[in-house]
Amino acid sequence: MTPTTPDQDRLGFRSYGGEAKLHCHDFHQIVLPRHGALELEIGGKGGRVEGRQAAFIAAGTRHAFRAEGGNRFVVLDTGDPAFGEAALDRLARAAFFPIGQPVLSLIDFLGSMTTDAVAGPLRAHWCGLFYAALTGEPAGNESGTLDRALAFMRARLDQPIAIRDIAREAGLSETRLHALFRAEHGMAPHAALIEMRLDKALELLSATKLSVAEIAFLTGHGDQSGLTRRLRQSRGLTPAAFRRMHSACSA
């Protein structure tokens, strides 16, 4: 690819196929998810554009990509992004960053376009809104991504959840998700999910008359023996023993 600097922002939809060798260009590039997944290596950092995660490729940064199957992404090429040097530096250091609902709504708006390229006043207006939305939710604000991950986990305690599902909802790579959970909670996401399920089970044991089997099902433990085994390993007691203790304390 020949390095070029756009005279103005270029905005539109693109699809990718196969694998591209390392290359670079003289403009910044922002890749936003629409459909499918795009694997990228940006300045030695690996990640994916998918779901709620986007990528920023700073001008002059060597990068490569790979995609399989049907895919479609919003791509913005720009020589002078309007969100300021501080935000530019954060994005360049992170390479991959989560996006929130304002940006997702802007992507959905473009989804109604019948052409791949967005030109003229519409492009300028969309880019202005995009820069404002991105500045309002800086890439360094990762506490929000953890909040989304935790909310996703709490809402699905009765369902099988893969770490990749949690990472996708949070807009993070699995590696980054693990790092943030260990930094903020001192444990891996899977361990945190186990503790959340046990906390919910204890809450139901103390506040309801549901059977242990029903509570096991509602908290993702499969059956009564699974809940009993996990509770004994983690908390040193059984469901029946906990209910007796709670009843004695409440009497």
What brief labels describe this structure?
single chain; 251 residues; alpha+beta; Jelly Rolls; Arc Repressor Mutant, subunit A; 2 domains; six-stranded antiparallel sheet; four-stranded antiparallel sheet; disordered N terminus
At a glance:
With 251 residues, the protein is α+β, with helices and mostly antiparallel strands. The chain is 48% helix and 19% strand. The protein has helices spanning 84-94, 101-110, 120-136, 143-154, 163-170, 174-185, 189-207, 212-218, 224-235, 239-250; strands spanning 10-14, 18-19, 28-35, 38-42, 45-49, 53-57, 63-67, 72-78, 96-98, 117-118.
Walk me through the topology:
Layout: E1 10-14, E2 18-19, E3 28-35, E4 38-42, E5 45-49, E6 53-57, E7 63-67, E8 72-78, H1 84-94, E9 96-98, H2 101-110, E10 117-118, H3 120-136, H4 143-154, H5 163-170, H6 174-185, H7 189-207, H8 212-218, H9 224-235, H10 239-250
Antiparallel strand pairs: 1-8, 1-10, 2-7, 3-6, 3-8, 4-5, 4-7, 6-9
Helix pairs in contact: 4-5, 8-9
Structure notes:
With 251 residues, this protein is an alpha+beta fold. It folds into two domains: 10-136, Jelly Rolls (Sandwich), CATH 2.60.120.10; 142-251, Orthogonal Bundle (Arc Repressor Mutant, subunit A). It has ten helices and ten strands. The strands form two sheets. Strands 9-6-3-8-1-10 form a six-stranded antiparallel sheet. It has a four-stranded antiparallel sheet with strand order 2-7-4-5, with no helix packed on it. Strand 4 and strand 5 form a beta hairpin. Helix 4 crosses helix 5 and helix 8 (212-218) crosses helix 9 (224-235). The chain is elongated. Mean pLDDT is 85; it is low at 1-5.
